[in-house]
Give the backbone structure.
Amino acid sequence: MSTTIAAIATGNAPGGIGVIRISGEKAIEIADAVFLPLDGSSLSKLKGYRAKYGNIIIEGEKADNAVALVFRAPRSYTGEDVAELSVHGGLLMVKKTLEAVFAAGAVPAEAGEFTKRAFLNGKIDLTQAESVAELISAEGEQALKASYNALQGALSTRINSVLQKLLDASALMAAWVDYPDEEIPELSEQELEKTLSCCKAELDELLENYENAKTVTKGVDTAIAGRPNVGKSSLMNLLTGTEKSIVTHIEGTTRDIVEEDITLGGIVLHLKDTAGIRRSDDLVESIGIEKANKAIEDARLVLAVFDGGEKENEYDLELAEKCKGKTSIAVINKSDLEQKLDTSFIENAFDKLVFISAKNDEGINELSDAVSELLGVKDFDTSAPMLANLRQKQNCKNACDSITEALEGLSLGVTYDALNVMIDAAADELLSLTGRKATSEVVNNIFSKFCVGK
Ligand code: GDP
């Protein structure tokens, strides 16, 4: 008999309500020990999908008004009997109720154990379980939509359809090899080639989309760079809506790196506002400048800021040089002033050029469009299936490699036996991807990254 687990399902902070979730064979019995419905009935008599209003009873005394929800196996999140107690959300009340639940026989749930049970009970597959974690941590609008679609099974559907084609082909080939005299429909090599090519194309599409999917779901490291006083901090503040970066007209004010996450063009940018690039005798400022150069090198996207109201100088040219070959946008600031910058040196160094006035809040929509176009996510379809992490990508790539091998083998005329080994290897990778054949290490590793209560 498996244990009955319990944990606080809402966050570890005061809120309107706090929810204690209990799952396992004794879930409802345990809930009955700490909750008394107002009508004096008991939760054990309740069908699934029902709620009762009543009181939390701690050490024989009424401690809080609460609502109890009852879900009956297999129709619950975990696939087991589940009870959820919603109490008033002061942290102490929630903790005391949880303690009472433990005293009645439940054990503390491990990180991700509710979702792990859902996976082990066949309610969701591994890609869906991972998307639960993504959904919780999603910051951008697109990330939220993408992980919701993965939770609905967008990736599983794609993978399972490829898998089925591979298994059908494999079964047919095995039958041909094992029962050559039986009346098994003829296996045409042309058909087989078509099936394998189609499987490969479907997996290739997922792999090609991986970087864009990662951009959408994980965000992009972005450096704001430029010489002192071009308006980097003003841009940062405009984007973050705060006064985190110090704005002054004194050169060298941003001596270290200010970091903030913002959403622009539907993507989360992990922004770093860097020290102005110039040479300096001031030690502290020099370290800041060194860090700035490193931030530019490491960033996936550089927003290189120039002052449109001034003629270009050696630092501007140096920055343009540094950005060559990087994914970068030239942001010409101070468009409200008379323009003196000759942008010809910028045009061949940058992928895009945008005019803004950080002071007057102008040009931010254009910047937003430039970001999403440049990162290839402007028309990103969040409803399409996508690989969400390296684990999924690796399984997909291995499957794809085995199919490629099988296609080569087919053209070279290798035996069906040998072909079947390659196709089975591809199928195995896809079974690992969705978790139907994943090792317990892989499964434990995935759920250990969840929070307790999920
Ligand atoms: P940083 O050193 O590159 O971070 O530059 P700051 O953001 O500190 O700005 C330097 C100066 O330029 C400040 O006096 C800002 O008020 C001014 N500034 C920033 N953006 C604009 C703008 O769009 N137009 C004008 N006219 N001034 C700006």
